[in-house]
């Protein structure tokens, strides 16, 4: 027997927090009959005298003074039309009347602000998919974060400070939302919207970013949290975000110094500040991103007593490229210092770290610091590159333009902004394949080679 959505919500309300709602069913004559209800200040399944009274009560007791209308067919648990954010009783009643004429069953529930910094999504089996600024239907769109349940629960608890109530059997599919402010009939942080048993088999998590949640927090913050959730050594990091309360993760490094790192929505090699020592995050944001569109957070990260520093990335055919040098690596990453020959024990440790990460995430890129004993992850990104030997970005060009790395990364950024299809870049001067110079070239996707491969140059 297939349960109606309102029956499912009524059952869920016995053990879970649901949004305040009133269910209605068509009577076959174009009118509505109330079924179940949960409205703050009223007993469970209180019977209202009319649809108007029920809608008025919902609007009155909704924290945002808005309601949604969901429609569905009783033979299918999936929704039909969904109308979001209605504020007027008459407007709601008009929607109910229109949909009831189609013999659809209806649920009116409180609107809960999807732009409050929380997330909505779906948990099914061992996968959780979610996004900010959207309803659970975000899973039907590109850009959702897709994580195994165990990792998702760690990440979400880290960011929001509470453990999401998402413990369901493997054969369940549940739509949920998480909120910094308590919401719903029971005034909790997790709200359950829909629940159904499914016969879906194993669903693999995509484990890729940038996604809408990584953009919400900042790419560096998200990548480091993933590394930490996977059990990798990550320096203790406090994230001061634009849209989330500050949160902290990672491990103590034994150093009392810190780094200040900006965390943009997506990787922007060398564009924004990374500096040793604490800087005023508010002044930094006002200076480097006054419109608030690019930098999502500022990280205060414990320093590591760096014996060696560098980066590792996946090249073609499964090859792992590891580069670095003695001491701290910020100048090396900017292309201002050259890579050095690393001791075998450092190379072996970084290679082992790469293997541990890639076994879970696939091809990755990360910046690392070795303190003599431990490889610490200070940035993590997913995805392979096509970099190999002196070819930074493969491809041919009808016109090669020479760029001397001594000019600096900002001049390269300006050059790349002026290139057109058919042009490529020849890099003169020594630079690491894992440096931000190389990262910027890969991001731009124009053919790029080091000058050791002879090409006609403009």
Overview in brief:
This protein has helices at residues 5-12, 51-61, 89-100, 149-160, 212-217, 219-229, 281-288, 330-333, 344-361, 409-418, 436-444; strands at 21-26, 32-38, 67-72, 79-86, 105-110, 119-124, 127-132, 145-148, 172-183, 188-197, 237-241, 247-249, 258-264, 274-276, 295-302, 308-314, 320-326, 364-370, 375-382, 391-393, 399-404, 423-428, 448-450. It is of the alpha+beta class and 458 residues long. The strands form 5 sheets. The chain has a 5-stranded antiparallel β-sheet with strand order 2-1-5-3-4. A 5-stranded antiparallel β-sheet has the order 8-7-6-9-10.
Q: Please report which band the strand proportion falls in: under 5%, 5-15%, 15-25%, 25-35%, 35-45% or over 45%.
A: 25-35%
Structural class based on helices, strands and sheet pairing: alpha+beta
Largest sheet: 5 strands, antiparallel
- Strands, total number: 23
Uncertain regions spanning at least 5 consecutive residues: 453-458
- How many structural domains can be distinguished in the coordinates? 4
- Strand sequence of the main sheet, in spatial order? 2-1-5-3-4
Give the rounded overall mean pLDDT: 89
Separate helix tally: 11
N/C terminus separation: 74 Å
Percent of residues in helical segments? 10-25%
What gross morphology would you assign?
A: elongated
Radius of gyration: 27 Å
